[in-house]
Amino acid sequence: MSEAVTPKISPAWKPAAVVFDCDGLLVDTESCWAVAEGEIFARFGLTFGPQQKAQLIGKAVTDEAREIARAVGGNSNARDIEIELLQLASQAISVGARAMPGAVSIVDRIGRVLPIGVASNSPRRLLDLALERGELARAFRATIAGDEVGAPKPAPDMYLEACRRLGVAPEQALAFEDSMTGVLAAKAAGMKVICIPTLKGLEYPADAVFDSLGDRRLLDWLCRWA
């Protein structure tokens, strides 16, 4: 097995189910969200760059709107920002979202041998739109959106619900994530986690970290059970 996945994942371990995040992992929607976020910052005369994006990535829309309201200050209202953010993100995703490199292939490969699901902090309408744009809409046995659970990531709720719907115990399931928020949620649920970071250079508390879904070390490991 690749050094990237030892010693936290045993070479003999095989998950009973796999749950994927969506935004930034399966579908390149983070660039679309950045367009929407940048427009809001620009309206307040503020610059939107990597530092600002790092504070928002992986968060649920409501939490993100609160962060933006704090960042822009003034008389900004988090609820108004949330509504605007959803509208702008929906427009950007409907035009610009594409499957991430290797996403369709790895979902197809794993889905042939294991039950698979999606757990996303995006609200249902944006999750469905992203999966449709990525040509992944019919690939999963279960999809859980951020507005369908009691608490979004980094709480474990949606991962626990995904495992319930897939009929497996969390400790028998594997999560794929791209953000710190998502990794923390999956670990809190008791799952093993592979991280494909959108933001590089951070120390993620995942069981393995790879550069992309097409990383040869990851694919070599998957070949042992998928």
Describe this structure in words.
The protein is built from 9 helices and 6 strands, in the order E-H-H-H-H-H-E-H-E-H-E-H-E-E-H. With 226 residues, it is α/β, with parallel strands linked by helices. The protein folds into 2 domains: 3-28 and 98-222, Rossmann fold (3-Layer(aba) Sandwich), CATH 3.40.50; 30-96, DNA polymerase, domain 1 (Orthogonal Bundle). It has a 6-stranded parallel beta sheet, sandwiched between helices. Helix 3 crosses helix 4 (78-96). The protein is globular.
Sheet with most strands: strand arrangement: 3-2-1-4-5-6
Instruction: Estimate the helix proportion, in percent.
Output: 40-55%
What is the CATH topology classification name of the largest domain? Answer: Rossmann fold
- What is the molecular shape? globular
Report the total helices.
9
As residue ranges, the low-confidence spans are none
Supply the helix-strand structural class.
alpha/beta
Class of the largest domain in CATH? Answer: Alpha Beta
Mean pLDDT: 91
- Evaluate the radius of gyration: 17 Å
Q: What is the H/E order?
A: EHHHHHEHEHEHEEH
The CATH architecture classification of the largest domain is: 3-Layer(aba) Sandwich
Largest sheet, in brief, is: 6 strands, parallel
Distance between the first and last residues' Cα:
14 Å
Number of strands: 6
Number of domains: 2
What is the CATH homology-level superfamily of the largest domain?
HAD superfamily/HAD-like
Q: What percent strand? A: 5-15%
